[in-house]
Design goal:
single chain, CHP02241, Phage_T4_Gp19
Length: 157
Amino acid sequence: MPDIFYPIPKFRFKVKWDSLSRETEIGFTEVTGLDYQVDVIEYRDGIDPNLSKRKIAGHRKFSNVVLKRGVFKGVRDFYDWIDGGDKANEKSLVKRKDYRRTVTVTLMDEAAVEVVSWNLQNAFPTKVQFSDMKADGNEVSIETIELAHEGVTVSYH
């Protein structure tokens, strides 16, 4: 009987980032913005016999990655990261040596076997958003962090 292959569902994933002296693994409810794009440069000079422009690959572009998770008592790593934690008294972000981090998002199959990973290089927070409050709401409180980064590499396991 031949093997039947199914696409991997997207509901089982994990996120890790290097944090000071250890690697931290955190559970999230949603990850968006894992994309990669190449700008197109169009060029045509006046003596080109073709009546169309040439298309040349330009700069690579990466969207910001947005991570969402539930709010937990005593967990403040999103705020500490964007605020600088105990280094908040230093005025310049350049002086914060641990500000940029490597963030890894890994998709797993139903048996928790890693299938594909996205590694974000030199990621740093550009926005932290705390949950809205609603007196008659019945939802979990969700906090969001938006990360800018300087590149993504994809690894298939």
